[in-house]
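Methods — Computational structure assignment.
A single polypeptide chain was analysed. Its primary sequence is given first, followed by the predicted tertiary structure written as structure tokens.
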Amino acid sequence: MARDRSMENGTVNNRITSEKEFEEVFRYYYRPLFLFAYGYVMDEGEAENIVQSVFTEMWEKRKNLPENLNLRAYLYSSVKHACLRYFKRLQLLDEYKKRQAEALVLSFADDDIEDDRELIALVQKALSQLSEQQRRIVELHVMEGKKYLEIADLLQLSENTVRTHLKRAYKILRENLSCLFPNIFF
């Protein structure tokens, strides 16, 4: 009971030294931290990964944690920073995908005109497999370089909906173009 009260106000007056103590902290904070992470990333799997990695890191660093640590503040701060790192990775991945698409377009310029026509026809055919909404989002994101939030505002959609449409569009394009471009990662 005293341990629960100290966890409620976030203070732990001794270090987490045993697995049992760690399990108590894990059971007490896991669900609220998961919901906190989910509020940021809006993806259950990623929220679980983030919270689990924070607890793993805490366990690995347990001997170096201060004795009078405000555990609640430490955990929430760690989850918040892990969510921000997740968004940074997504942004870097988006930039990489954009560069890959640009490289793909530039590679067309070196081929002779007949090959270009065939490739353009195949790309257009792949694009025709997308819904109108997916095609518009791909155009705005890849060709015009707009961010998810800009596209969401422009098309009056949620940012998560834009992300989902783009993810599904990339999957369709990857399936239709992978035989031509086996190194496409978008």
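Note: Residues 71-110 form the longest helix (40 residues).
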